Amino acid sequence: MANSALGTGGNLMQALKTRMHFHQSRQKVLAENVANADSPGFRPMDVKAPSVRVSNGGVGDVSLARTSAGHMGIGGRSDGFDSARARRFETTPSGNAVNLEDEMMKVAQNQSDYQLAASLYSKGLGLMKIAIGKGR
Amino acid sequence: MDLLKSIAVATSGLRSQSGRMRVIAENMANADSGPERAGADPYRRKIPTFQRRFDRELEAQVVDMGRVQRDQSAFRVKYDPGNPTADAAGNVRMPNVNSLVETMDMREAQRSYEANLNLVSSTRRMIQRTIDILRA
Q1: Which residue of chain B comes nearest to A136, CA vs CA?
Q2: What is the pLDDT of residues B92-107, one digit of tens each?
């Protein structure tokens, strides 16, 4: 029991770390989209959300699904983040398909999701502190 | 750190949009700059261009101001026989600046600037949240 709890704790922290890493990468991709909101011919990108594989009953390791073998991460990222083409609402005559409102929504959502993950992470740290006897 | 890179990407957007604003201001200010002497051309409208560039350091597509191009459309013609720069028929050629078009461009630049600014503040909040993990 103690072992599995500790294991779950470790895996939980790992999963949250992956989650936070995902939100960081997504923030960068969204920043690219917004910065290029007026560049001709620019197509917005998005990062595919990590899918949690449940293995051994507990919180599994988190990995990212690849939508196509031909896709490559932006800038050859090695951490497995995959930029899939975002859904497009409209394309201007200059060939730009960035919808600013949509991007702002995504940024706000990304930020609050990141804050949630960060809060859970510090909660997890607090749990560990209690376990080692330095809890408040 | 990815979040700082997000800020750098958004900053490239801010820089290009303010450059665009400068060109628009130039057009607006020179909306009535007629020819300096008879036979010379009046002010010709400038068009800001954007180009995207892959920044290897940031591993992201940033946006830069491209060459400022000149609008090759026809000049406005104003009938003003008293003007010293008028031709034999009493017509003066005036700049091809349409203040309505410039106002629309200005609004667009303003909106894009705000979007980039929003992204910077959102990313800053994410960084602050990360630092808060240490405090917990």
Answers
A1: B136
A2: 999 999 999 999 999 9
